[in-house]
Amino acid sequence: MLDDRDPTTLDADALDRLFNAARTHAHWLDRPVDDATLTRLYDLLKMAPTSANSQPGRFVFVKSQAAKARLEPCLMEGNRAKTMAAPVTVIVCHDLAFYEKLPSLFPHTDARRWFEGNDDLIRTTAFRNGTLQGAYLILAARALGLDCGPMSGFDNAKVDAAFLEGTTWRSNFLVNLGYGDPDRLPPRAPRPAFEDMCRIV
């Protein structure tokens, strides 16, 4: 919905859902997230921009008890309980062979040749744009009414061995997804002022 005061700006409720009132959750209501919602989530995030439409982000949605049992030993102790309680944990990954799909994703030039044999460019492009897509996932999830708990605090090598072995995918960070318990949120941490963090030149 657009704000009546400015037809180019989302209304206050939408901005609150995406940013101002959105919180990082560690406690979850007993409410599942169905596969159709996860499909909608991906179908939203894939529309956001990546370099040369490279789309290197890959996403492993950990839902089953068996998969959670594989994930738990990869987590730092402080992240285990909240992750095991979350309906879904997304392993946000990037694919180091993303450029193989460029002939279909970016068909108007031979973009694959930009990357073939250039390992530094492959790693940088995959990591940067896969990270962007992880951020898009958070916003898409919030837009669909889900709450998020993004985090580091795990062993990437263990996650890669448990979930990505034999692939060209590599883990980046995790996002717990579900419906957070608003009654268990701590006070919001402060955010820095524009003038402390930004420059207009």
Automatic annotation (TrEMBL):
One Gene Ontology MF term: oxidoreductase activity
EC number(s) reported in the record: 1.-.-.-
Enzyme class: oxidoreductase
Gene3D superfamilies from the UniProt entry: NADH Oxidase
Domain (Nitroreductase): residue spans on this chain: 27-179
Cofactor(s) required, per the database record: FMN
Keywords noted in UniProt: Flavoprotein, FMN, NAD, NADP, Oxidoreductase
Family, as annotated: Belongs to the nitroreductase family. HadB/RutE subfamily.
Name used for this protein in its record: Putative NADH dehydrogenase/NAD(P)H nitroreductase GGD88_003334
Matches recorded under InterPro entries: Nitroreductase, Nitroreductase-like, Nitroreductase_HadB/RutE, RutE-like
